[in-house]
Design a protein that fits this description.
Length: 105
């Protein structure tokens, strides 16, 4: 009796199995998409943190260059080399403006 029902309704049985497999696979695909989204968000966060760290390091390098420029200016002031001071002041002003542009207060 059961075998007759299965034999007579074979198409319906296959359709039901196909539906179950399809729903399962769609659920799996949605789950994997959620994982991919989480991975993408984590990668974005890591890239933002890395970009910030690189910016901080570059700013420190720029500040060290500005400090060295100030030290050169101090020597030029002591030696009364005013023309050279003017050139170094312009360079220092550009350095500090770049730092301010990179990290506004």
């Amino acid at each position: 009796m059961v075998m007759e029902y299965v034999r007579d309704n074979w198409g319906s049985f296959v359709s039901l199995v196909s539906l179950i497999i399809t729903v399962t696979m769609v659920g799996f695909a949605i789950w994997r998409a959620g994982q991919a989204k989480e991975s993408a968000e984590a990668a974005e966060k890591a890239s933002i943190e890395a970009r910030g760290a690189i910016t901080r390091v570059l700013t420190i390098v720029d500040l060290e260059r500005a400090i060295a420029q100030v030290q050169r200016l101090k020597v030029l002031h002591r030696e009364s080399k005013w023309e050279a001071c003017l050139e170094h002041y312009a360079d220092l002003r550009h350095m500090l403006a770049d730092i301010e542009r990179t990290h506004p207060t």
